[in-house]
Amino acid sequence: NISASPAAIRQLDEAAINRIAAGEVVERPASAVKELVENAVDAGARRIEVVIAHGGRSLIRVTDDGCGIPEAQLPLALARHATSKIDGTDLLNIRSFGFRGEALASLGAVGRLSVTSRVEGAEGARIGMSGGRAEGCAPAALDCGTVVELRDLFYATPARLKFLRTDRAEAQAVADTLRRIAMAEPRVGFTLRDDESGRVILRLDPERGEGQAPLEARLRAILGAEFTDNAIPLEAEREGHVLTGLAALPTYSRGAAVQQFVFVNGRPVRDKLLTGALKAGYSDLMHAGRHPAAALFVTCDPARVDVNVHPAKAEVRFRDPASVRSLIVTGLRQALAGATHRSSSTNAS
Length: 349
Ligand code: ADP
Ligand code: MG
Prior knowledge:
Blueprint: H1 14-25, H2 29-42, E1 47-53, E2 59-64, H3 74-78, H4 103-110, E3 112-118, E4 124-130, E5 133-140, E6 145-151, H5 158-162, H6 167-184, E7 189-194, E8 200-204, H7 213-223, H8 225-229, E9 231-238, E10 241-248, E11 260-264, E12 267-269, H9 272-281, E13 294-299, E14 305-306, E15 317-318, H10 321-348
Parallel strand pairs: 1-7, 11-13
Antiparallel strand pairs: 1-2, 2-6, 3-4, 3-6, 4-5, 7-8, 9-10, 10-13, 11-12, 14-15
The protein binds adenosine-5'-diphosphate and magnesium ion.
Family: Belongs to the DNA mismatch repair MutL/HexB family.
GO molecular function: ATP binding; ATP hydrolysis activity; ATP-dependent DNA damage sensor activity; mismatched DNA binding
Domain DNA mismatch repair protein S5: 219-337
């Protein structure tokens, strides 16, 4: 209706702003779990327990033994654009998972949120938030650490509810999200439990050891012994970027790209540059239609990669993408050539 007089421009209220922002960050229960578990990892937790009901739509509870949140800071933890992780002056030096200060505010806008926390040497406290409005703090008893509970996800945005899949499929997505985070944090223990049946869906004990050993043990627990028995460790470096991880021998290829995991500075990412490089590393060794299996970890100075390009932080931009691509392609080729050479010389002797 072009001829109509223009509608007045109005400032949206805080609750509406949070609900809109939440749409970008929280797509389904698994994305809420990702935000909460990343917060627990950022808090230095050694053990993280996730409980879900109805695939996470009626309940998500994440309990951690991390540093906790002081009572006086609980209201700020729920406020939008409030974070303890960066000071805003250096967006190129992000070392934590979080930095936007949006997750808790968003979750409190699309579900009934409560955060209960205790720091060492103080009493615990609880704060609730629903419909985008925070309640006051109340005393609570708990061990040091934090319990975040999210009930009735999307009750305030029924349109979103319709896009969710079955409880089973949502629970599966939650488990996959946890597995991805757990690959990059082998020293942290993770459990996922279903609240109604009490069934443990996933249990990963903290792995100990030095060097790549904890990673290898964790990948064995997640991807299976067949993967780790057929995989070789990666170790390459190029212009300040370091590649580690495990790459399966070409003989252990899959019919689909289901066992390809890529991490940048410990952050699970889905990135075409990186998966393209992974494929290229195997290109001469694998038949068309087969897919390599690998867990690749690229680490570099945080200033060389921008993680602030995607609301859920699933994408990254490297300052020097060509160099990262070469690192992966040649790192893989060299490791695979070495392994093929070794196995053929063992066969010969
Ligand atoms: P961000 O992670 O981007 O900082 P969040 O909304 O996820 O934003 O969290 C806001 C703040 O609340 C964090 O910066 C942190 O100080 C605190 N916080 C959230 N979860 C936890 C937790 N599990 N343990 C300790 N502190 C937490
Ligand atoms: Mg966060």
